[in-house]
Amino acid sequence: MMIHVFLLLSLCFSDYGFLPVASLGINYGQVGSNLPPPDKVLDLLSSLKITKAKIYDTNPQILTTFANSNVELIVTVENQMLAVVMDPQQALQWVTTHIKPYFPATKITEISVGNEVFTDDDTSLIGYLVPAMVSIHGALVQLGLDKYIHVSTPNSLAILQESFPPSAGSFKSQVSATMSQYLQFLANTGSPFWINAYPYFAYKGAPNNVSLDYVLLNKNPGMVDPYTKLHYDNMLYAQVDAVVYAMFRLGYSGIEVRVSETGWPSKGDPDETGATPANAAVYNRNLLRRQMRNEGTPLRPNTKLEVYLFALFNEDMKPGPTSERNYGLFQPDGTIAYNVGLSALSTTSSTSSSSSSASIFLTSSADKAAKTGYQSLVYWMFVYLLAFQVLLRQH
């Protein structure tokens, strides 16, 4: 009978508990003066049940610390290294030094060759990109790692000439030649097309013309693409599908699109409309709920959209406007930056160390009430069964 009770408890709490989301990752940036060490970050990710993370380099301390954990890592070849790793021998040396010593103990699943190369101020990088990717992939082949580690690169949405409606999606003409080579590489290697998609920027640029509910993934009437008749209830999915259509126009239809960065700043300069803790909480909470449902976009409803949140921490050393330093879900000391539905569940301390753990608690007020009801029901069933056992023993 007690076994049945624990089974019932497991079923109830699995509906409202803290289960990992397979299609959710997070960006672990390190441009800060006071960030916690990698072992504390790993503890935080484990308590959040987040099993995918992306870093913007190949920090050996992180790669060593994350060994034998359940966290899958995307690592990065920095933009300034692209001209070097174009050379196949240099690429082999890079992979031998930065990847091979850590794999497979550290679950490196992908190498990002550069970041937003197509829209970088240094336009010479565009010519380096595909040769660098080919060389890095060739090095993985030589070392027998290509079956485990993909090669791709994150792209800004500024690569699009048109993005609205989604079916009009097209790439800018100045990148189309290299883009075709890049897409051929992805098709040949089975790698995904990554985009950094921020509906926040669209709202910031035209707050009087863009619906806040539409960009925050709140309930709203949405829009219907006049050509495909597909209904979009949020801008993020529309942006993803615009990229899919842009690839269609170049003759590529089977490449998966994933979101390498998306988020919302909790603080900004006076001209950064919408950068508030409330909006950041709503955007990320709504996104997390959709990830829990393994949603796809209207164009690809049966393919769950993989998304990496930006970012784990606020990073005080990032240049640019105030918003750039305030995308984090957490402050550097591990406290929650704003209430996104991440509830601190337990804190343990000792004379030598202390750590806080938090878990994703994806519930609205109604969800919390429902959870309380379930817990109450389970509690009284448990009491009843114990009392029933006592009566059986007495008789």
UniProtKB/TrEMBL annotation:
Stated family: Belongs to the glycosyl hydrolase 17 family.
According to the record, the signal peptide region is: 1-17
In which organism is this protein found? Gossypium darwinii
Q: What is this protein called?
A: glucan endo-1,3-beta-D-glucosidase
Which Gene3D superfamilies does the UniProt entry name for this protein?
A: Glycosidases
Q: EC number(s) for this protein?
A: 3.2.1.39
Q: Which GO terms describe its biological process?
A: carbohydrate metabolic process
Q: Which Pfam families match?
A: Glyco_hydro_17
Record has Repeat as a keyword = no
Under catalytic activity, the entry for this protein gives: Hydrolysis of (1->3)-beta-D-glucosidic linkages in (1->3)-beta-D-glucans
Does the record's keyword annotation contain Signal?
yes
GO-annotated molecular function: glucan endo-1,3-beta-D-glucosidase activity
Could you list this entry's UniProt keywords, alphabetically sorted: Glycosidase, Hydrolase, Signal
